[in-house]
Amino acid sequence: MNDQLFRLTAFTTDPNGGNPAGVWIGETLPDAATMQHIAAEVGYSETAFIAPSQGHNRTIRYFSPLAEVSFCGHATIAGAIVLGRTTGVGHYTLDTTVGPVMVQVKSADNQLQAALTSVETAHKLASAELVGEVLALLNWRPEDLDSSIKPAVAYGGAWHLVLAVKSQTRLNQLSYDFESLKTLMLREGLTTLQLICRERDDLFHSRNPFPVGGVVEDPATGAAAAALGGYLRDAGLIDVPAQFLIRQGEAMGRPSQLQISVPAEGGIVVAGTAVDIG
């Protein structure tokens, strides 16, 4: 198999929805500079690089247009769909820079569906100083926050700042200074902001600024979804096992749906599908 580059959009069945991702598959991974160049040319928020081209154990790395990312959920789902097409349904082990991520690919409802299981999750409550800085950059107020889900820095393969607001109206009003937020996030080691509003126990709405990757907003963020699921469980904010849906990208005109399963322990399962772009 020669090197191949695929373009899919994840967490949707509509080519005009979801989060676009590049998926490169070859016998051996290119060097980091080449992968960075390819990701910049593709121009999506992330491109996944997978090698070798055969077998159920692969190495995967992720690059945004600006830098390598430790873990990316939507590119993993897109990559899993490509593996299902080229190798077949079943279980795969993807070796990431943060540890092995298991993915399952199955056929259902006349389409391939994929589910990833994240690495072990972690979280810590965010400092008042960090929350204050971010709120100021978002032009949000402390009273906008949902006190039942305290601000936290959460991990499911990458670190994200979780901020929950009380109303979807507040969530829909998102505007920020790109360079200022990027500088703050690089300083704090954050990949995205996981901005959420809980409509019901089984339904969350989310928006994810991603300036560190050169992207104003991500329309579907599987890594942040895993981090959120882990935080809600480990902080005792949900009863487990649990399942919930995250709707994201709607304010951008790229609606996405991420299906989250939270077991009593271990990694968080994030599921969805992906379709070709164009």
Walk me through this protein's architecture.
This protein has helices at 32-42, 73-86, 128-138, 168-172, 178-188, 222-234; strands at 4-10, 19-25, 46-51, 57-63, 68-69, 90-96, 99-108, 111-117, 122-125, 152-155, 159-164, 192-200, 203-210, 215-218, 242-248, 256-262, 269-272, 274-276. The protein is of the alpha+beta class and 278 residues long. It folds into 2 domains: 4-117, Diaminopimelate Epimerase, Chain A, domain 1, CATH 3.10.310; 122-265, Roll (Diaminopimelate Epimerase, Chain A, domain 1). It has an 18-stranded mixed β-sheet that branches. Strand 12 (192-200) and strand 13 (203-210) form a beta hairpin. Helix 2 (73-86) crosses helix 6. It is globular. The two termini are 23 Å apart.
Question: Secondary structure elements and their pairing?
Answer:
Elements (H helix, E strand, L loop, with lengths): L3 E7 L8 E7 L6 H11 L3 E6 L5 E7 L4 E2 L3 H14 L3 E7 L2 E10 L2 E7 L4 E4 L2 H11 L13 E4 L3 E6 L3 H5 L5 H11 L3 E9 L2 E8 L4 E4 L3 H13 L7 E7 L7 E7 L6 E4 L1 E3 L2
Helix pairs in contact: 2-6
